[in-house]
Amino acid sequence: MGKPVAYAVVAIVALSAVPFVAPRSEYAIEVLFLIFLYGAMATAWNLLGGFAGQVSFGHAAFLGIGAYATTIMIANGVSLWVAVPVSALLAGLYSLVIGIPAFRLRGPYFSIATIGIGEATRLIALNWTSLTGGASGLTLAGAPPLVQQYFAALALLVAAVGLAAWIRSSRFGYALAAVRQDTDAAETLGVATTVTKTQALFLSACILGVAGSVYALHYLFISPDSVFGFSTSISLVIMPIIGGLGTVTGPLIGAVVYTFIREQFAATLANVDLLAFGVLLIAIVVFEPRGILGIADRVRGMRRARPPAGADA
Amino acid sequence: MRRSFLAFAAAALAAGTVVSSTPVASRADNGPSEVVVGAVLPLTGEESRVGTFYKAAYELATKEINDHGGLQLRQYGRKIPVKLIIYDDKTDPATSRNLYERLALQDHVDAMLGGYSTDLVQAQTVVPNQHGIPYVGGGGAASAIYKRGFKTIFSLLASIENLAYTECDFIEEMQAQKKLPKPLKMAVVYENTSHGQDFAKGLTARAKQKPQNFQIVMSEAFDLHGKDFTPLLQKVKAINANAFMSDAHLDDYITMQRQYAQVGLHHAYLTYGARGPEKSARDALGKSADYIVAAAWWNQAIPNAAVKAFDEKWAKAYPKLNAEWYAALPYETARTLYIAMTETGSVDKAKVVETLRHIDIRDTVLPGGHIRFEADGQINAPFVVTENLPDGKTVIVYPHAEKTGEAVLPVPGS
Amino acid sequence: MAGLYAAMSYGLALIYGVLKIINLANAGFLMLGAYVTWWLFTSYHIHPLLAPLLIVPAFFLFGWALERTLVRRVLSAEPIISLLLLFGVWLVLQNLAYVIWTGDTRSIETPFVEATVNAGGLQLAVPRLYVFAMGALVLIALQLFLTRTYLGRAIRATAQDRDAARLVGVDVDRVMGIAFGIGIALAGFGGSLLSLLFSFTPDFGRALSLKSFCIVVLGGLDSIVGVAFGSLALALAEAFGVRYMPASLQNLISFVVLVVVLIALPRGIVGTVRALRRG
Fold first, then answer.
1. Which of B8, B117, C161, C207 could form a disulfide with A252 if both were Cys (CB 3.0 to 4.6 A apart)?
2. Which of C 151-190 lie inside 8 A of A, CB atoms?
3. Do A260 and B18 touch (CB under 8 A)?
4. ipTM reported for the complex surpasses 0.85
5. Can you tell me the distance from the alpha carbon of C90 to that of C182, in angstroms, rounded to the nearest whole number?
6. Which of A174, A203, A257 is nearest to A45 (CA)?
7. Inter-chain touch B7–A253, beta carbons under 8 Å
8. pTM of the model as a whole
9. Same domain, B168 and B276
């Protein structure tokens, strides 16, 4: 376990240096910021979708709640240090409200219910005009400097990945894996499956709540369609799958690929990016469900299998 | 997992570098080699039809400048060509905002032209405001956009409340001529966006002010880009109204009006706010689009020289695109920005904003011909009221200065 | 509305019944059916009512090929994998449509689409009546097919118990391919019907597909008759609901119904009634 930590520290130091080494390349910082934010969101989704195998198509709801809570509190003069944890908690509470009943459903049924939950949450936000401003959305007056946002997103990412790494090697992580592999068997082995799933959902929602705070402070304007939109939920599903479902670093790799393809193609070749994600998704699901990390493992395995040069002489 | 952290850091850095590695235009002492203007438009997605027109119009206005060697900027003592960068936001507010951020941070634009449709404009205007970049738009009418205290945002699209008032003025005139019942019992259905809310707000205010002329018997919002309005229309049918006052986007207008006909509704007065005479809608709806009244920011039939000249230019450049208001408004939007930059004589952002604040342009293609901005950045321009007549004809029925025909009201057969 | 809801949900129920997977790509095929109808009409002047004659066989082949090449590979994996696969198919279909047809709103214009008839003082739109009739017709045809033909019985046997069906000599692999093909063909047919009533974009079908899920869940996921009941129930709930609540919340009804039913009656209406009768 020592080695990954060392590598992670090197990675964090390298990424922290960017704003000081290249202070003028604001756009690169912006792109890295987005990668961190999406990476944290994908990692959060993966806690439930990857570790516990409960695929949610409605996770934008938690991002939206975090974003709205932060915006509303800051607009009313609440300090950022209060607003962010409260946002996380609200997103977490909402996850309990929907999770406890929804987890009576298994696998695909749960997934379909989450589509409905996500859309219902968006519609409620759209129509609760007195609180959310309805379709007109809410605007914040000013953003913290980009470099501060950069470090906030990096910190969030590190926290999310750290949590994921810890969970993976903990008893809780084994319980989640048991739920994913066979819910009934896990139950007979004495795992309280519903409680376990609900805990994963709660943690996942809290991280997304904080991501919502970061999102709101970066974008300054939020509306039901932007933060609660189905396309946000979709991107949260795509990233971990591309990178490697149920792994610690897979969602990060997925976030890099996703952000990169999107930033490269979004401006010029519209919808080609989503088309590419669709093809990628099909290919990964059919041929290598462990995503890019799985492919990397295979390549490495092949290299190892090959005898060293000159060995046959 | 061991090395993938490093792989992540390396990949992230590489992605950041590749995406952002576009050379910045070099700036010599005699000014920039080109003036960079950027816009993000919905070229795909729900609003792509209108977005395509905006792109065509921005390109036409820019081409006219560049055909004459560029913008004559006093401070540099020469003409500088304009480079227009247009991105596609896929009708998605977050993408739209991201791409405006890219225009600001990566392309280092000198000024921005606006996108289209209220919700996108709401999200994207945050960026020019934050970076102090002049932004001239012609695609977001909801007054909420301009009530946020933003200082660098200007819009040529008059507010939807104004639109509602103009239609009410017209209705009052028709009532005086006994062409419409008095009071007019209005069933108001509006899209659940700030666009639609403004429309309802305008009608409600007028009804309160003149209850002898207007009475609202129903007021309800519907979801944007809806597919089935039949239950809502059944509700309208159950109510004894003699005017159907809707405010909708183009696709919703087409869907709703088709279902209006299918449900068998008839009213003495029928409007979809700004929508009505669009050629695509009339092609799609056929006879059921006849007698729809619309209050628009512009119409091809406005009888003045500037409109005629624009019409000819447009037809020559884009023979396949009919000149709609969403051709003329963005064209005049880009022209307004270029005029402001020429008047300023430089690309200094704060100075261009200052010029825009006090700008006064006459003889434009807008109704009344006059462009100047209110303190909040939004134009205060009149609307033209049109009515669709059979065989694809559209006449301007209000105001008198722009009138090209007589209104046929109440709607025959109602 | 009920006929329409039913027409777009039969395929979903059939595929679930036989293959035990949820066809998340249903929305994509609905959309594709609408676009093909529109494309045949505008490019080749084929009347929209005749379009299904081409769409149904073409979509059947497409669905069958899809099952052979992709779906089959994930059938034995966790159910989530097939859901994600079909989600990918949906993404591809939707964005392919954006690339081919752009995001412009399309609609089909014929005198038939505009026609109305008077029935006892009620004005009824002809295309709506037609769609309702088609919804009922497909129900009858499907029931006859499933109960009276060998292939239909084989499909039902496979749906009930795959291994048992294999034991009695049913070529289960072939049956699953055919059932998937029929399911896709039904979605294409539903999409073709939808194009008579609505204007559409490549994003078309998402909201409707949620309604499909709702209906299928209401009906008990694998029962064709259940689908017809589910459609009727949802259509009625919406029609009455809108009278007492704002129209902007109309779509909320189906989601609320979906979530409530999923949680309260995991076996659907038909399943619950069956269970009650047994109990």
1. B8
2. none
3. yes
4. no
5. 18
6. A203
7. yes
8. 0.85
9. yes
